[in-house]
């Protein structure tokens, strides 16, 4: 089930509850059954759905609630809060895993992800996002594996008017990454975004290369780019990336398409990592910051 339908199903389950004359345990159970099956059909992990269900049940404990409380409002709030909790790993933004680049230092962000996830596109989108907020941003193409990768990044960068670095001759991505970062650091850039190569599968070689690049450029943040439409595969894929690259943030792409989204939601929980931005289209401006409350509000319309 695509995200828009998920929102509609949850909404209609909630309106059903609102319409019923007596909001008792049975009515709440009916609503919960509908909400949970909608989440499962959207590929949200079964354990997460069970936790959500238990938490909501605990919050709407009618035996403990007094006679004058607004049961509908309590039920609606419980659902809203638990849906937020589903996409919120509660990681302290300012802690070591903090994502936000600061203008008073040079921030290096490294991108990882499978081929086709939307890495190169998202690098440019993020670069432009921060460029428009006053950062001096440079893009480095450390993908020497895919023919045409540098040209793609270059075209995007030119369109966005972002300085870029790459090589047509150097075949070692670690060397290109190191040179690019060093160049931009020397020129006092305060945000350097490094695009790495993606591949079709989770290959050992790819992970080894990622680790080497990371050890060389020492990023302040590593972002995994995840295609929201890949369903349940998102969970295992992001776990594998987490083990080798230890990314601290996720960009979820293709949220404009027919994304089920549930697999990606489960990836947040599986890796305990926040989604920081979502990609909402193919153009360089199609990026939005992600916050759990906004996401759930939008989901529920
Ligand atoms: P990479 O192999 O991970 O670097 O992926 P690319 O950046 O080349 O993107 C693969 C395809 O996905 C391209 O056709 C992009 O235009 C498209 N794409 C990337 N992000 C989005 C998005 O948020 N929405 C849509 N609809 N397409 C996207």
TrEMBL record:
Reaction(s) catalysed by this chain, per the record, are: GTP + H2O = GDP + phosphate + H(+)
Question: Which residue intervals define the domain SRP54-type proteins GTP-binding in the entry?
Answer: 274-287
Q: Which domain of life is it from?
A: Eukaryota
Q: Which UniProt keywords apply?
A: Cytoplasm, Endoplasmic reticulum, GTP-binding, Hydrolase, Nucleotide-binding, Ribonucleoprotein, RNA-binding, Signal recognition particle
Compartment list:
Cytoplasm; Endoplasmic reticulum
What's the domain remark here? The NG domain, also named G domain, is a special guanosine triphosphatase (GTPase) domain, which binds GTP and forms a guanosine 5'-triphosphate (GTP)-dependent complex with a homologous NG domain in the SRP receptor subunit srp101. The two NG domains undergo cooperative rearrangements upon their assembly, which culminate in the reciprocal activation of the GTPase activity of one another. SRP receptor compaction upon binding with cargo-loaded SRP and GTPase rearrangement drive SRP-mediated cotranslational protein translocation into the ER.
What does it do? Signal-recognition-particle (SRP) assembly has a crucial role in targeting secretory proteins to the rough endoplasmic reticulum (ER) membrane. SRP is required for the cotranslational protein translocation for ER import and preferentially recognizes strongly hydrophobic signal sequences. It is involved in targeting the nascent chain-ribosome (RNC) complex to the ER and is proposed to participate in the arrest of nascent chain elongation during membrane targeting. SRP54 binds to the signal sequence of presecretory protein when they emerge from the ribosomes.
Assembly and oligomerization: Fungal signal recognition particle consists of a 7S RNA molecule (scR1) and at least six protein subunits: srp72, srp68, srp54, sec65, srp21 and srp14.
- What family does this belong to? Belongs to the GTP-binding SRP family. SRP54 subfamily.
Q: What is this protein called?
A: Signal recognition particle 54 kDa protein
Q: Give the species.
A: Myxozyma melibiosi
Lineage, opening ranks = Eukaryota, Fungi, Dikarya, Ascomycota, Saccharomycotina
């Amino acid at each position: 089930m695509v995200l828009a339908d998920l929102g509609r199903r949850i909404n209609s389950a909630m309106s059903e509850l609102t319409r019923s004359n007596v909001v008792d345990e049975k009515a709440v159970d009916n609503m919960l059954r509908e909400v949970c099956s909608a989440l499962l059909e959207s590929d949200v992990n079964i354990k997460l759905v069970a936790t959500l269900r238990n938490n909501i049940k605990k919050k709407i404990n009618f035996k403990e609630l007094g006679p004058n409380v607004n049961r509908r409002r309590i039920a609606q709030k419980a659902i809203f809060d638990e849906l937020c909790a589903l996409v919120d790993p509660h990681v302290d933004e300012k802690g070591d895993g903090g994502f936000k680049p600061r203008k008073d230092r040079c921030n290096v962000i490294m991108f990882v992800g499978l081929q086709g996830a939307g890495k190169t596109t998202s690098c440019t989108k993020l670069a432009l996002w921060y460029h428009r907020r006053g950062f001096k941003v440079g893009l480095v193409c450390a993908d020497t594996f895919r023919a045409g990768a540098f040209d793609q990044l270059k075209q995007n960068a030119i369109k966005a008017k972002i300085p870029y670095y790459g090589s047509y001759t150097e075949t070692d991505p670690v060397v290109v990454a190191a040179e690019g970062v060093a160049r931009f650091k020397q020129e006092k850039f305060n945000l350097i975004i490094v695009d790495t190569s993606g591949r079709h599968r989770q290959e050992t070689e790819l992970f080894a290369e990622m680790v080497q690049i990371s050890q060389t450029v020492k990023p302040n943040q590593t972002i995994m780019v995840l295609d929201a439409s890949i369903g349940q595969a998102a969970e295992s894929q992001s776990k594998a990336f987490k083990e080798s690259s230890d990314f601290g943030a996720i960009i979820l792409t293709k949220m404009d398409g027919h994304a089920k989204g549930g697999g990606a939601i489960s990836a947040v929980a599986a890796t305990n990592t926040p989604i920081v931005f979502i990609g909402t289209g193919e153009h360089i401006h199609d990026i939005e910051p992600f916050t759990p409350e906004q996401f759930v509000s939008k989901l529920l319309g």
